[in-house]
Amino acid sequence: xxxxxxxxxxxxxxxxxxxxxxxxxxxxxxxxxxxxxxxxxxxxxxxxxxxxxxxxxxxxxxxxxxxxxxxxxxxxxxxxxxxxxxxxxxxxxxxxxxxxxxxxxxxxxxxxxxxxxxxxxxxxxxxxxxxxxxxxxxxxxxxxxxxxxxxxxxxxxxxxxxxxxxxxxxxxxxxxxxxxxxxxxxxxxxxxxxxxxxxxxxxxxxxxxxxxxxxxxxxxxxxxxxxxxxxxxxxxxxxxxxxxxxxxxxxxxxxxxxxxxxxxxxxxxxxxxxxxxxxxxxxxxxxxxxxxxxxxxxxxxxxxxxxxxxxxxxxxxxxxxxxxxxxxxxxxxxxxxxxxxxxxxxxxxxxxxxxxxxxxxxxxxxxxxxxxxxxxxxxxxxxxxxxxxxxxxxxxxxxxxxxxxxxxxxxxxxxxxxxxxxxxxxxxxxxxxxxxxxxxxxxxxxxxxxxxxxxxxxxxxxxxxxxxxxxxxxxxxxxxxxxxxxxxxxxxxxxxxxxxxxxxxxxxxxxxxxxxxxxxxxxxxxxxxxxxxxxxxxxxxxxxxxxxxxxxxxxxxxxxxxxxxxxxxxxxxxxxxxxxxxxxxxxxxxxxxxxxxxxxxxxxxxxxxxxxxxxxxxxxxxxxxxxxxxxxxxxxxxxxxxxxxxxxxxxxxxxxxxxxxxxxxxxxxxxxxxxxxxxxxxxxxxxxxxxxxxxxxxxxxxxxxxxxxxxxxxxxxxxxxxxxxxxxxxxxxxxxxxxxxxxxxxxxxxxx
Length: 752
Fold this sequence. Notes:
Elements: E1 9-12, H1 18-28, E2 32-37, H2 49-52, E3 57-60, H3 66-77, E4 81-84, H4 90-93, H5 98-104, E5 109-112, H6 129-136, H7 155-178, E6 182-185, H8 188-191, E7 215-218, E8 224-228, H9 234-240, H10 244-248, H11 254-259, H12 261-275, H13 280-289, E9 293-296, H14 300-304, H15 307-311, E10 315-320, E11 324-329, E12 334-335, H16 353-362, E13 383-386, H17 392-402, E14 406-411, H18 419-425, E15 430-434, H19 439-449, E16 454-457, H20 463-466, H21 471-477, E17 482-487, H22 502-509, H23 511-516, H24 528-551, E18 555-560, H25 561-568, E19 591-593, E20 596-601, E21 604-609, H26 615-619, H27 632-643, H28 648-657, E22 661-664, H29 669-673, H30 676-680, E23 684-689, E24 693-698, E25 703-704, H31 722-728, H32 735-740, E26 744-745
Parallel strand pairs: 1-2, 1-4, 2-3, 4-5, 5-6, 13-14, 13-16, 14-15, 16-17, 17-18
Antiparallel strand pairs: 6-25, 7-8, 8-9, 10-11, 12-18, 15-26, 19-20, 20-21, 21-22, 23-24
Helix pairs in contact: 1-7, 3-16, 7-24, 9-13, 17-24, 22-25, 24-25
């Protein structure tokens, strides 16, 4: 087997980004993905189709024609999975909806990815990426002037694809168990709640949060670096740079700088001047050699050519029939036993029609009979040891918990869990603070491992190996273990052992440079690489469990923040002869052009999402007469003038009446979390947490008809489940001793 999904057939009706990207994830892991396009090809003619449709087969069908519609039904009858991302109701009106297709083929897993959910009042809105992002507050104002900031990174579409891919493989796991498929809905809007972090939660911040003179720093050669001291190795950098006296003055004490604004200002001034004494690459090399965190703020073009990007295969070359030799993102989820592969370039349009017609007659699924099985969780009965820290790894563990696994979160008893992160990423888990550096702590770990299915960790490469807890050590004791690793830059290549956080992945891969434009490199509005890597880790785990269910074989799986950064930027992460880097850049960007951008109305901002073919209908709208006669900047200026004359609600109502995409630009993520519909559907939850009181967290966005996701209990107080966990492992009689010796702790301090 070359891929965990060998033998799985997928019919991909997706258009634009979300559906095709989901299909790409599955094709990269061995699935036979059949791409169905309308006459004329994909609705968005973009070089990125060469990435999203790689390794697939192609057929063109006019779903409005009876003959082609029947062909689509025949293809679906042979399928394991269907993917579509039209508006709710479109496939139903064609007779290809989830209810009809799963009734005809009970083994079918049918995944819908609309912009807004089928029961959302906005279900009928033309929900382009920009419309969904405006609704979710991705473009929320970043200045006092209230002007929104557009990002070309398709966060909503990508997150829907992340969660759809996980849900599909989890559903395949369930089908192996009981023979039945199910319906999945992953709305783009709902998927975005996975990006909600501690910044909107009313939980206490971690001690010492904020402060510090680090971040984007201008260097001698006019280039920028991003410096993030998220580990203790920064002291090695301090010594290497000769800054011990600065440290003695408290200039690097985050907690003190947060309390003393004048000292923080002085620290920032001195550090800014210091970094102007060397070139950016010199600082990157110096700080990285000290084991701390620094990256030049590269452009995406530079990263596509970077040696590590090629050594790690996060950038690969594909020979595309249309564009020739093309650099594009490599596989995100890496598997040791079922490595997957890009099986070929995107196919020529309709290239596989004859073969697929023949297969539609020859390949028939085994139809399951009987009543629907009782609804259970996909991972019910599975146990996970979660050794992760910060965001990406814990998000992976949280996702496995949502699918029903018993996840035990093991934290360092000295550090414990960062409070502001803990309550959102560790819900649904049990918690123990255990010293794995001690032999007694490792003895507890080995006992816990005996009935464990999955271990998840996101430390620097080699760190757990030095403790004897790496993959090779663990599989000697548990040969069928699924062991997941996540890090900053991947596990092969010259940067594999470098530490890094969200900010560094954004700096290295071009995200910061693009969002900052000609000014200071700027972070994206969400921790998109962290949370996305958590989902890709869960995807890899699900693939490995699916393979283990079929063969009994465990394996090591991995992913990284940098891999995910390339996935998120997939609309423009291609390089080939004649490539033009023309996506919007900078903090002044409002959109892609006059028909796809934010506009100021009389009382706020709205996002307009229309196509050139919509111009005749746009010109019929009251107040927008003659718009159909304009192009380019003239059209943009005219729309600016007209739309400023009336309210957001007025314009949105008029635009939607003509089936043109539009939505108010939400000014606040907290306001989105407080929306009644959002609360009613569990995307925002306010629950009591131990010793804290009510805390707002996000909930799962994917909907599965037979094995629904569950948020689980609120995140426990760190260490709260230690006694229970130790008793299950046979250490109940040693609980007091282990606590007294500091091997186990409660809430980060010794229990009394």
